[in-house]
Amino acid sequence: xxxxxxxxxxxxxxxxxxxxxxxxxxxxxxxxxxxxxxxxxxxxxxxxxxxxxxxxxxxxxxxxxxxxxxxxxxxxxxxxxx
Length: 82
Fold this sequence. Notes:
By secondary structure, this protein is an alpha+beta fold.
């Protein structure tokens, strides 16, 4: 069971900030929503990323890969509806 401590959330937001540097090129971004007790990170895409047809690939190959590499408490990353 994972508790979303301030340290974990800060590390998640750091990784999402790095991802946002790239997503902002296409006028999009990703935002932290919550970390569930089972290690599932919930995020939301904003801007052009919210409607992009490549959203699933960006989530898995970009955002999830980066988060899992740097935040061991996260087991998976899922989108919440906008």
